[in-house]
Amino acid sequence: MSVALVTGPAPSRLAPHEVQVWLAHLDRGAAMVDRLVGVLSEDERERAGRFHFRRDAMRWIVARGTLRGILAAYLQTEPAAVAFSYSEKGKPTLAERLGRDDLQFSVSHSADLAAFALAVEAPVGVDVERLRDVDDMEGVAERTFSARECTALRDLPRRLRSEGFFNCWTRKEAYVKALGAGLSYPLERFSVSIAPGAPARLESVEDAPAHVRTWTMEALPLRTGFAGAVAVGRPGVRVRCQRWGEMR
Q1: Are 76 and 11 contacting, i.e. CB atoms less than 8 angstroms apart?
Q2: Cut 0.85: pTM above it
Q3: pLDDT at residue 97 above 90?
């Protein structure tokens, strides 16, 4: 199943067998950043103030404000009214008082790109990464990927290895984020496809073999220079990828 990028309507409702992924550009003007600061909570504003570089702070503000805007549209409320709770592993969920424990979401951002994935009644995870040079790529893979993935990476032509590495990285991160397990999950105990141009999929999961059949994984149609994936704990899910606001 391929995922197309479309310019869609504002969020409204989600069907159980659908995941909606919204892509947003994070480098926005000062006026937009100031407006989004106004919808953040006090602790979110304090967190933004702890960034060392102004650009990083501005991008985080846009990402968080955009998340609030997207969730508010689904909840039919104001962005400032959205509230979060956090698991022991740091996974954010909607606060109980909002009455929507069926609405699951995941967020990822890299450089100037953010992705927001939403699903109902199923765990969901999303990850995006800017392609870049990685020092000792094979060594990082040996410490992080499964033996099956390391072999697949070495078998790729050298010109495709960076893309294959980040395909693997984002697919594994999307799955782990959906599980809500955080960085403690043993990444070498499951495998994903990595070959550029091949479908994204779970290939094996030692701790939960049935997930190969019962989970959906899709690559995201991102612009050149980025890799991304979404994973959801339900089979046969339709993934709809859309732009949020103005994107370059």
Answers
A1: no
A2: yes
A3: no
